[in-house]
Structures are given as C-alpha cells and as structure tokens.
Write a structure and sequence with these properties.
Radius of gyration: 26 Å
CATH topology of the largest domain: Rossmann fold
Strand order of the largest sheet: 5-2-1-6-7-8
Number of domains: 2
CATH class of the largest domain: Alpha Beta
CATH architecture of the largest domain: 3-Layer(aba) Sandwich
Distance between the termini: 41 Å
Strand content: 5-15%
Oligomer: single chain
Shape: elongated
C-alpha cells in the first residue's frame, strides 16, 4: 500500500504563504501527495516558528526554534529560503514557477506587485498556473488593502456575536477557526481549479478571504437572519433551532444532550422518568419546544441531576438518543475512539531530542490511497539545496553563487561554497 501513488502525486505547489490559513491549505494538499515547496524569508521564516512556547525539545533538553503552532500546519512540505526583496530572489521564484502547478500566497492585497510576482505579472507568462491568493478581505472592496487576522475576521464576520453565554461579552472561538476554514475553502477551490486546468490548460486566480469564508461559516444562523430579519443572539450551549440541545447538569458534572427529533425527545423523557414533560403539550413538537425553551430547560435539571453523567451517556446511547461527555484536550487524545482512529501521529524530526514530534493526524481515511507523512514540518531552509538541485537541476557552483548574491540562505546546514 505504501507504494500506491497518492491522489496528488505529480502536483507541485509553490507555497509563499505563512501563519495559518495558507499553510492549512497547503498542508492538506501535501497530505494528499502534492510536493509542497515552502518559500520562507532568510533568517526568519514563517512567523509562527517563534509563536511559543511550547517548542520542540532539542538535544540537551533545550527548546529549539520549532513551535507547536508552526508544527500544526506545515508537515509534508519542503522548506527553501529565498530573499524576495532581491532581484536575484525574484528571478529564482520565476524559475521555479514553470516547474509548479499551483502558487499559494497570503501577502496583503497587492503585496507581491512590488516583487513582480502578482497574478497580473505572471498570468500571461504562465497561463496554466493556478494562483491562489489568501487575504483578510479579498482582492476587491473597500477593505481590500487592510491586513487581516483571524480574530478580526471572527469579529467582523459575526461569529463572535453568536459565541459564548447568553448576555455575556462577545467571545471568539478557542482556535483560529476563520484561518482554518479559509484554508479549507482554499484547498477545495485549488482542486477545482486544477481540474479545470487539466481539462482546458487554463490557469486562473483564486481569491479567498478570511471575511468571506467566515460569513459563509455562519451557515444556519446567517440564513435564520436572512429569512426572518431577526438578529441572532448568543445561545450559550443551546441550539437556535433544536430543543433540547445543550449542556445539562448531572449528579456528578455535566453532559451533552443533543435531541434531534420528537422521537428522541420521548425516549429521553422515558429514560428520565419524566412522564409530565412527555405529556406536556408545550413540548409536543420541536417547534413548540423551541418556542417554550425556557420552560423546558428550567424543568429538566430536576431530572438530569438524578443520574451521573456516565449513566446518562450509557442509557441514552442504548436508546439511540445522542448524548456525550465534555472532555479536556488531554482526555481527547486518550479517548479509545480517537486512539482507534489514529488521530495522533508521531513523525521523525531531526532536531527533536526524542527523534520524533507528535502531530494531529489528517482526519480523512482513504481505502486505496491512505495519507502518508512523508515530511515532518521542515526546519528553516532545510531543503534549499535539495530543491534547487532536484527541481531546477542547479549544480553546486550555481547554488553557491545564489547564496553569495543574497538570493537565498539556509539554516541547519551549509550550502555549497559556504
């Protein structure tokens, strides 16, 4: 099975992105088999390399420059350092482009124009290139020139107004979900554009914005507003359209109850011994329960506090009623289902004291072309010489000349002539 070609074998990506949205997209495509060349600034690299602690522990027990944040979005890539501010560095990128199918960048709108590497600069010379631009606000509109960050997109895109407890302050999500979802949309659109390119020979620019994808991520709450004209408000752990669907108190803690239909509600009532709630006409249908949610939620704790969380989970699961625990992150990776699904993967890393670094695995399971972890998240410039030789066919003297004129540098090893 390990010799089976991966879905994107033969596809090469020139990755000029950093932080989270762009790297999320290119990591996913790298997991699917694409050869991802991560272009980084000499001496600095991806900003997230320094976003810690925690950092990878190196020999002697000292922290390295490889942060957990950086590791989360950069496996299955090779790193090359190129100085885009130099004419020689810009020329090197232009030499790499015809060897690649896709270019991904997340500079501010218009930011690559000064280097002669914008889509308009390249589209005529490389008409088959799929060029994906990931920005905060897109290539058009009154905010196009602004720098965009996940936090800003969550606030401007409405999700913070829906997150957190009722009558509480606006609350962002616990992870950079605007970045991650933008990366997911970018990866999907890249695959669609690649399909179009393969069919017609025509490349194109993909314009992915954090704000656009965050607005799209409003999903049902956004459509609730568009249909009703009523501003949605935070529901805490409740659901705007389904009741009961919330975190409830048990005799020893809390559990999640996610009733999705009237039959499940009746089954909950039966297991809880709540004949009065089963027969109450205010709660007979989901629509009625939504209208009378406060009354139902006020009545339920008298029943839910009679059993432990595990008793609720086991008893309701046996009856086909969705119910589950609320786990801390450390407990997640010990859960038998998560373990069985191999959602942690340890990959070799040459700087790690243990010889490996733990990563969250790709969640997609392929029956014929399983994901392979070919490269650990690379150290800065780790593959500079390898890429220049393998992709461009340069020899030692040519690489040394590029190093001398400032077009590239490498950390973690020497270039020929250093």
């Amino acid at each position: 099975m390990t010799d089976t070609p991966l879905p994107l074998d033969g596809v090469r990506i020139l990755d000029l992105s950093r932080i989270l949205a762009g790297p999320t997209a290119t990591q996913l495509l790298g997991d699917l088999g694409a050869d991802v060349i991560k272009v980084e600034r000499p001496g600095a690299g991806d900003d997230t390399r320094k976003w810690g602690p925690p950092f990878v522990t190196g020999d002697g027990g000292e922290p390295t420059d490889e942060s957990a944040y950086y590791l989360s979005a950069n496996r299955n890539k090779r790193s090359i350092t190129v100085n885009l501010a130099s004419a020689e560095g810009q020329a090197l990128i232009r030499r790499l482009i015809p060897e690649c199918d896709i270019l991904v960048e997340n500079y501010k709108t218009g930011g690559l124009k000064k280097y002669g590497l914008s889509y308009d600069d390249l589209k005529d010379e490389f008409p088959s290139l799929v060029y994906c631009s990931v920005t905060g606000f897109g290539q058009t509109g009154p905010y196009a020139s602004r720098a965009g960050y996940d936090f800003l997109a969550q606030g401007l895109g409405g999700i913070m107004s829906l997150t957190g407890p009722k009558d509480g302050p606006p609350m962002k999500c616990g992870v950079g979900i605007a970045d991650v979802m933008c990366g997911m949309y970018a990866a999907t659109s890249i695959l669609a554009a690649l399909r179009h390119r393969d069919r017609t020979g025509q490349g194109q620019q993909i314009d992915c914005a954090l704000l656009d994808t965050q607005v799209a991520w409003l999903i049902n709450e956004g459509c609730n507003y568009l249909l009703s004209g009523k501003r949605p408000v935070p529901q805490g752990n409740e659901h705007p359209n389904i009741v009961p669907y919330s975190v409830l108190e048990s005799s020893d803690g809390y559990f999640i109850l996610a009733v999705g239909n009237d039959s499940q509600y009746q089954k909950w009532c039966d297991f809880a011994g709540a004949a009065d709630l089963a027969a109450d006409p205010r709660f007979a249908t989901n629509s009625l329960r939504v209208r009378n949610r406060e009354a139902l939620y006020a009545a339920m704790p008298a029943y839910t506090r009679r059993k432990t969380s595990q008793e609720w989970i086991d008893g309701l699961a046996a009856r086909g009623v969705p119910c589950g625990p609320i786990k801390h992150v450390d407990e997640v990776f010990e859960d038998p289902q998560v373990v069985a699904r191999n959602m942690r993967v340890d990959v070799p890393h040459h700087q790690a004291q243990s010889g490996t670094v733990p990563l969250i695995a790709n969640p997609v399971k392929f029956s014929e072309t399983p994901v392979r972890y070919r490269h650990a998240p690379p150290t800065l410039g780790q593959h500079t010489e390898e890429i220049l030789k393998d992709v461009l066919g340069l020899d030692d003297d040519e690489i040394a000349a590029l190093a001398r004129n400032g077009a590239l540098t490498q950390t973690g090893g020497q270039l020929p002539g250093d």
